[in-house]
Structures are given as structure tokens and as C-alpha cells.
Amino acid sequence: MAGSKMLSFVRMGQSYPDKRAATDRRDDFAEIASSFALAKAEEQSSRCSQCGVPYCATHCPLHNHIPDWLRLTAEGRLREAYELSNATSTMPEICGRICPQDRLCEGNCVIEFSGHGAVTIGSVEKFITDTAWEQGWVEPIVPVRDRSAQSVGIIGAGPAGLTAAELLRAEGYAVHVYDRHDRAGGLLTYGIPGFKLEKHIVMRRVQRLVDAGIVFHTGFDIGRDATLESLRQRHDALLVATGVYKPRAIKAPGVGAPGVVKALDYLIASNRKGFGDTVPEWEDGSLNAAGKRVVVIGGGDTAMDCVRTAVRQGASSVKCLYRRDRANMPGSQREVANAEEEGVEFVWLSAPEAFDGDTSVSGVHATRMRLGAPDASGRRAPEPDPDSGFHLDADLAIQALGFDAEDLPKLFATPELSVTRWGTLRVDRQMMTSLEGVFAAGDIVRGASLVVWAIRDGRDVATRMHNFLKQKAGASREKVAA
């Protein structure tokens, strides 16, 4: 009977939840797509081929049991589907919203290869867990035993830190999370716009952790409010999960002109405004695109967030300048399509050379690019096309070229903290840094990456820290006995 529910891709086409019309969604920061209705979720789940080698799962960093919870959904066993989805992911409804499924699970779906269109995995994943929240199936975190005599300090309340906090609290440890921002969530809260991830979705996850007894120290800056060494003395183990926040800068004349801003500053201001905060830089217009000609430089997901935010703020025009072509951009193709629907103009194979303006930016001088020989990664390297310069008017230019690691040894006043040549923290096979009992996970180890990889790292490091803490407790008992 179970088999009769599946393999319907041969008679049923691919379908995603309906998107709101671009003219409607340009005016607010609400998510652009509705959720599946139950019947549609069951129908789309039944398209899964239940293949012997599930490439969707192997290409998911969390190795989610995707074919299994698709089958359970198709059979109407939605609570079981949720429990199976939740078994491998601490934030399935968040991943369902913001993962680039077109490059991961759906992009490697077997029926996609056969020309039938991938199963809409992300939309089903979102539906399953949203339903679980609505039905009260998301249970509180109950520690398996009391290990609160040992405490863990986690620096960074982004997806890696929150995942590790949840899993270590479930093991019974006392958990304290330290974050520089006034709200937990990291880039989930302040870096990703609401039209991709509404903020109540993040806040209810954080509240679940608070309800479990995890203590959050927000507005807490290591180096200002405490030293790393003092936290080492306070806790039995530490996790550094700060992410990478240092923006990559453009080296061009005029880049320091007012109105040439950093992507994260711009997105944080917008998200703070969405929370109802007072944001002086938004109010005075320096980080507000209303009525302006906006040029965003970059081709990743952060650039897509910026262009689509600018549209919603009422920019008079929005252009995205990227040095490669569409096929070679790092951002999600779905995000590009959404941006184009909303009126964003993409200027492919182009790069900035200089910025006009003294008191404020007034334009961007750019040059056309062409793709040359492949670089070390195998991608064709962009190179300037001679005598192809052009000019774009701009009242706001946003740099969205990605992020690097901050100088943590300096910020933490801990020069013995070892880093790689990229500035990321160096860890061993146990995910421990050069300091005994100090672990690291997420982007601060692997560099700027996806939320789903941060969750995976948080899951892995929680296991390593649990093993370390058990050994430490055992050694203490032996010392007392001796």
C-alpha cells in the first residue's frame, strides 16, 4: 500500500506553493510564498521515486531522511514525518525556507535528472514543521539526565551556536550563550530579510531554548565584557561560533564616499527597522534606499537580499553588478528569478572601477568583463574587456562581495588562538582549537557558507564536546577518589 502512494511523478507534474504577485510583494517584507495545503503537500510528496540511492539525502549536509519523510507525508502520517525530519535538523522549517535546494537536495533529485522536475522538498519540509508548531507537536527540550554540574559557554548565537546549545542542553549540561547583538539568531535574525525568513520563525526557536533553561547573554562583547580566558575559567568547555562578519572590501577610487555602504550594515538596519527599533542610519537615509538609484555589487545570496530589500524600501531603480555571467554566479538561481520579477536589473559580466561623488556617491564607473582561462578552482576567471567602460548613476552603492573572518586572536586578546591563512580558526579532528577545551564550529572554521552547514557543524561539535565533558568528569572523579 505504501508503494501505491509513491512514484506519482509519471502522472503528476511538479508544483510549488503559489507566490504572491511581484507587484504585491514589493510593498512589504512578508514571505513571498504561501505554504502548501495538506492535500498539495501529500500530492507533491508522492512524486518521490523512493530511489535506492537517495542523492537528495547524500547531497544534504545534514543527510536528512528525505525519502522517508516524503513517504510518511504522502501517507498522511504527518507527525511521524515531522519527528523524522526533526531527528537530523534543529531548524527544519528554517532550512526549508532558506536552503538553496536547487543546488542541494532538489538539484540532485533523481527524477529531476529524468526530466520530470524535482520533488519540491524544501516546500514540504517547511510545511511539515510549520504544521508541527501549529499542532503543538514541537515538544520542549527535556534533558536526558542532570549534568548541570558542568557548564558550557557558547560564543555566538547563530545557527551553529544555537544548534550546539540545544543538543548540549538536551544532554543535561548548563548552557550559556554569549552574543554581541541584542537578539539571538545571528544572521538568521539580522542578516536575512523577512521576505525569505520572517523573524517570528527565528524568535520561537530562540524562545524554546530559553524555556529549556539555556541562558542568553546578549549585547555581550568578548574583549569588552569578559576575556576569553575568564570564560574558560567560568565554564568546563567553550564553543566559538561567531561566524564571519568582516566584509570584503572593494579597492577602487571613491569607495570611501558617503553612500558607498557595506551589505551587512544595510541589512541589519533594515531588519532592525522591521523589529520596530529606532535606527538613526535608516531615519537619516544613509542606510535607506527610498527614492534612490541603487547599485549592488556582488552575485551571492547577500547581494540578492540587498537588491530585493532595496526594492521594498522604495528605490527608484535597482541594478546588480556582477563580474561573471548568470550561469557562474554563486547565488541561488531562484533568488535571481525572484529579484527579476520584482524589477531588479542585472548587469552581468561587469565590475566597478571607481565611484563618483564627494559629499555623497553619485555614480559608479564600471567596465565590462569576459571569462578567461579557468582558475585554480576550475571556474573561468573574469578579466577586464579593454575599452569597455560605462557609467551607472547611483545614490546608494552597496558592497556585497562576501565576508571574511575577523581577527579573533586580537579581538579576544588571545594570541595563542591558532588561525589559518584565511583567518579562520584552526581545529583538530575533534573540532578543538589550539586551546584545551575551546572548540569551534560554523563559518568561523569553514569560512562563509550556508546555514545548513552551520547547523551540521553545530550538531557535530555538540557530540565532540559531550565526549570531552564526559572524559573531564571521569578524570575529576578519579582524582577525588585518589
TrEMBL record:
Record flagged with keyword Metal-binding: yes
InterPro entries xref list: DPD_II, FAD/NAD-binding_dom, GltD-like
Source taxon at top rank: Bacteria
Record domain FAD/NAD(P)-binding: where: 152-458
Domain named Dihydroprymidine dehydrogenase: residues: 26-136
Keyword set, alphabetical order: 4Fe-4S, Iron, Iron-sulfur, Metal-binding, Oxidoreductase
Keyword Iron-sulfur recorded: yes
Cross-referenced Pfam families: Fer4_20, Pyr_redox_2
Protein name: NAD(P)-dependent oxidoreductase
Organism field: Sphingomonas quercus
